[in-house]
Amino acid sequence: MSIMSNMNFGSRCGRKTLVVAISLMIAGLANAQSTSGSIFGQVPASAGEVVVVKSTSGLTRNALVDASGHYSINNLPVSSYDVTLQRAGKKVAQRSDVSIRVGSGSNVSFTESDISSASAKNLASVTVSANRLPIIDVTSTDSRSVITAEELAVLPLGRSTQAIALLAPGAVAGSSHFTGPLGTGLVAFGGSSVTENAYYINGMNVTDPLNGLGGIDLPYGSIEQVQTLTGGYSAAYGRSDGGVINQVGKRGTNQWHFGGQILWTPKWAKANPENIYFPPAAGNSAGDIYSYQHDNKTWTAVESAYLGGPIIKDKLFFFGSVEGSKSSGSGVSPASSTATQDNYHYIDPKWYAKLDWNINENNILEFTDASNKHQFGGNSYAYDYQTHEKGDFVSENAPFKTSAQMWIAKYTGYITDNLTVTAQFGKQVTDYYTQLPNSFNPDLAALYGSNLQNPKYSGGGGGITNTQNVYSSTNPAHQTRGANYRLDVTYKIGSHTITAGIDNQRTQDVDDGSVIPTNAGYAWAYNKMPNGVTDIVAGAVGATGIYPGGADGYYVSKYVFSSSATVRVEQHAQYLEDAWQVNDRLLLKLGLRNDQFTNYNNNNQAYIRETKPQWAPRLGASWDVNGDSSLKIYANAGRYYLAMPTSVALRGANGSLYSDIYYTYTGIDPTTGYPTGLTPVDTANGPGVAYSGNGEDGTPPDPHTVTSKSLKAEYQDEYVAGFDRQFNKTWVFGAKATLRRLKNAIDDTCQGDVFAAQATAEGLDPSNVRGCYFINPGRAADILVPDGNGGYGEMHVSGEALGLPHLKRSYYALNLYLEHPFDGKFWGRIDYTFSRSYGNSEGQVKSDTGQDGIAATIDWDYPQIMEYANGRLPNDRTHQLKAFGSWTINPQWTLSANISIASGSPTSCYGLYGPDQTAPNYGNGSYHWCNGVPVPAGSAGDLPWQHIISINGAYRPAFAGHKLAFNIDIYNVLNEQNTTTISQTNDSNYKLVEAMETPRYIRFGVTYDF
Questions:
Q1: What DSSP string describes 994-1005?
Q2: What does DSSP say about strands 244-249 and 198-201: parallel, antiparallel, or unpaired?
Q3: What is the topology classification, in CATH, of domain 257-373+399-745+807-1009?
């Protein structure tokens, strides 16, 4: 296990020279390939020496030993190798089972005593463990963790790459509001939002193309290594200002292996979830049960199998695996007269296949294919909150299935000892299918906000609901298609190793969008103002008090939305990096990346075009202080650009419709939950006429008028400095400081009145001004306005006129760690991280309110929304302590643990605006004011600390040759169920619990490996 310190394990070299330092430098360059590593070392100098490495998959490479006794072989696929020293064509020493880690090098050195010992044993292998001695990798300047298949086999973790990535220092679990399209949880790195990461499989970017919410996962048993980059990564990586999760899949070897695993988590092995109660803000209902959770349980079963080996020995290899996961359970809706119990199931199959062809010693061809599916189905039944009994069938839940598949073809050519070329091409296709359930009633409108109904008519509590559980419907033909191709060239010349490449990606989002599928085409949305005299939307939608039933601020709206489009994004990048060994102790990495992004609308017209050079320097330095790899001081600085994903076009650049018709009401139908006694509320468009607060009235916008002409891409600057220190043969400790600053972002602002006024001032027609534009928050905007004759006028809107503050998101952290590499018995690591994430923007999403519309949250829409927005951000965790590792008691018994302790996230209070509690643009829940008092972001109290302890025990009996294993995992041993998410809107649900820690559960497993 290696995290942050990037340690490698092998024999220690005694003295260092410039030549060996250059070898070390080359070893560290494998990072650029994202799936490879290197082997280097020192031997007693002698004429005619050659070092030969041969992998378990038959690949053979060799390197001449120079006059100083040093050698290096880079760009080796991740595998296990035999390393042989030859003199005059004869083997004189050998080390076996040397493992390399992705992006790192393994030091394999020989001494005269090794050679003498091998000779005495007639060249029997001098077998060493790659973990025998920790050597700090003085060639790296980034921040990474690498977890291997052997470590994954024993650690008590969730079966996803996100769960693995959470082991990295500074990584925090994403909000429960968000999940990826394939059903996985998400992770945030270094103060960034959950949509700002990049996900890779065998060198290909497999990030969710719609919103950046996760990526494709390998079957757990197919993972060879997972590399998590949390900062300082090379110019070869881009399209992320969060972190990079890089999965390297297994490959076939010269021996056939097969195996399987069964995992089972029964309902009876799960602790009962705690119930949720109405918060103090609920008034008379405070303390009453809101949601009965006690019996909400699931069972889960996972079956997996793998097979790998040689099709042609030393030439052609195959590895394949399948994994099937199914879970089934039930959950009860919040208390109401029409409460339901949902019985549901999820099916999540995965598969992975890899072919490796060693054409010859200098040419390798690889092919990877992988797939994930996520499928849901279920039924709703009546539920009696008095007896806690399930009743009659009510309806079928809308089934859905998301299916993602990718493939990659990759060529590696070792053209000369100094020149390596890799070329890669791959495709990814994802299908999103949601089916209307058989029980769908097209004549019944859905209800929003039933808990905000006037209790005079609803009876209080959760309000009156109905059986409609389909709120929107998507096109069953919805699909994304992506293509990625890249070329990387590495050339060594003197003390410089130069790597250059191109990295291009195209993504198309086909038939995306959603509508309300009922015959009426609308839903009823209940809401409440604090009183009857405050406008629902200041100056646009009137107050309720002058209408029947509206004296206390209660109202309802007829809500309509619709969007549909086929859009695409083109991304191109070029990079150049020089690893320069200045002297025997100082290494500089000088990189430069240029990213270009273009977003296209439904008519294949560009509406965001960032094709001018966007230079992203990546600079790193590593100082081997003592010259023996016992103390490394390192630093790096870099800039990271991020494009807008495809989904941005749906609302921002196409004809989406989001509107409301507002009413007061004097009753509620007890069967349908519909409002009765309706009276239209006056709006800027007239009473009973639809009003769209942000101008989304269904009219397709002119792509020239969607964004500011001076729009620049999102980017972040990062600075890292740290040290790693080995203080004896078995322990390493270190520290690292990180500073990140988001310098620019893209979001929409909807100040139509400001834009219209500026148009008038510049002699342009204000009626041709749009309601919303994409801008760089805090900066001036240059907007094109149609002149009515087929041309455009241009207006300049200053930052002062927009009234928005400068964008701010800063993150600083100090990480301290202590690590014990595996010594045949024990390995472990402890991390403590102190950090702060603060500013006035989390990034592309809003975790505290669950808004996942990229560049379309309510932030920056109006100046009033950004007042008091500066503060601690939702992904802030001031203190984090992580510890994990395993202890091999004997060949039969292994114990392991994973501990995560973290302070709670900050919360906010969103209410109406100002001391008079008005709604100048949007309604309640939009402003950093509550009860007429400003509440700065993140200042409404912290959620509780989390203390998650999980343990694993494994038994591999000797009678089965240690090939059969029985496992027990206990997650959340303490059964802590502290709150992780609350409602932060200042209404009767303020501080209502929305999510808690997962209760304790036990997972049983049986594994067989042959």
A1: EEEPPPPEEEEE
A2: parallel
A3: Maltoporin; Chain A (2.40.170)
